[in-house]
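Retro notes, structure queue

What went well: the backlog is down to a handful. What didn't: a couple of records were mislabeled last round, so from now on we paste the full input next to the output in the thread. Example, using Potassium transporter TrkA from Micromonospora gifhornensis:
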Amino acid sequence: MRGCAGFDRLTTMPDMAEPLLDRALRASRRLRVNGEPRAHYVICGQDPLAYWVVRALRGSEPQAGRLRITLIVPGRQRSPAPDGRDLPGVEVIRADRLDEHTFRRANLAGAAGLALLHQDDVGNMHAALCAQEVEPGLRLVVRMFNTGLANGVRQIFPDSAVLSDASIAAPAFVAAALGEVAPTHFRHGGRTLYLARREDVRPNEVVCGVADTRDPQQDLVLPTDDRAADVVLAEAAGRPVGTELAARKLARARRRRRPVAMVLRAIRSFATRKIGITVILLLAVVGLLGGLYANAAHVSLADAFYLTLVTTLTGQDPDTAKGAAEQVVQVILNLAGLALIPLITAVVVDGVVNARLALHTGRILPERSGHVVVVGLGNIGTRVMAQLNDFGVEVVAIDKNRDARGAGLARRLGVPLVVGDAAEEETLRAASVATCQALVVVSTDDGANLRAALNGRAINDELRVVLRLFDGHFAERVQRAFGIGTSRSVSYLAAPSFAAALLDRAVIATIPVGRHALLVTEVAVAAGSALDGRPLAAVGRTGSVRLLAHARPGQRYDWSPDHRMVIVAGDRLTVVARRAGLNALLREAAPPEEEITPPVGTPPLPRETEE
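Corresponding output:
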């Protein structure tokens, strides 16, 4: 009985039992590498952002054996886009609810960090509270559209970071829409640096070359010769450049609206095409009968036209004295009148309804020129629309749903919203795509995005198209086949910042150049590493890594270091690099890799489990 009472007390006090269980799991499941715990990160997501964050995590750890990744995904894959569940070496947990039970199955107790990457602010907040019950001291990275909640999240979870992939990626879309380089700027080592075209800055302001974008088929990033780069990192000199300057020019060049064109468009939208064709055919029949009536009654065409209309619309008294041909025409005209009067009524009713709908959905808009059309008012489209509006650029938005996420903001900003399918030519013409500056297509459907882009090009073959595509290989094929040279992946651009926040590392800046994403970061050189004792010249690699600045321990940054200088332990290297080049540099700057020796009897980690 005493044993049963003890069991009852244990089962009725879960708040006391669970911490004991968590500590036991934490102690038993941590693999150790020479006495150091193996870092464990849990990722929760179901879209390409989760996929790219997992890839960035795996690539950013110099000693891959020290890193363990668990990915929690829904039971069923909800889109054909990759979400990371097929990446090798990643433990996958299938679960449709992010609660304490799911997090314990993922061994969250003792984990180094948790990333909540679902597109649901409230859902991510609930999941964070559940995770805190399992592991109170967890490093937390939360994806949120409403970054205004960041301060509240940090009060609840002190060791947390709130990021918005839309906010991170939107500037690249805005810059591409205006035909400029991405508006990247950051402060480091006492300097403010920004991305610009070489022609927009003074030669003494250039810090280093970033890319040669003059070849429309391929962007050459980090070329050997800095002078070959037309896109550079420059030191700020207090002058507006890049996107801001382009937006000012565009706002000044905007032409006035044409009210006459607006009236003509309203007339065209008054009735549907079917009713219009029917009316035209019926009037043609009446005109033909009028000609026959003139011949039968031996009257002039003007009199015949008058008599025909009167007969058709009001009828005519029968007259047996008329000839047979005239009587036949009169009967047919009366029958035509029976069809014409209801048809006129239908045209009026249909026209009024269509006009009201067109006004409500934005299909009757003034003709515009030099504006930017944004398709899709989801997370990224809303950010792009708001930033363009902040720059003073006129925007017209298109979305299938009148209650889309950004529809309310569009109304507050006075941005016209066309409700319709952007893949249809009529919808694009309603937004004046033929005379716009650029078409930014950022919905979440790759197929719909491509159709809208191709229809926009069909309307205006000189149109600048900025296309959002999730599949990078598909984007490259689209660029080659259709000449749409500006495509972006929000997840690809944002993933490095999420991975760095999860690892508690600081990515100073992310620089999008075409299909590439360059990272600016600082690398510390460890004692005994491959870089220790080598010259600074060993850091740079053509097309991969470029050294920006070097600092000895406790000293200031040298922005023009002698590349013959020998690297010593504790040195800090500020570099701009592609992802693969940075990963290789991190491996060379890390301590010598030691062999992983898991404890005897530790079972292998499962590849995948299902609930």
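Agreed that this is the format going forward. Reviewer comment attached to the example: The chain is about 40% helix and 20% strand.
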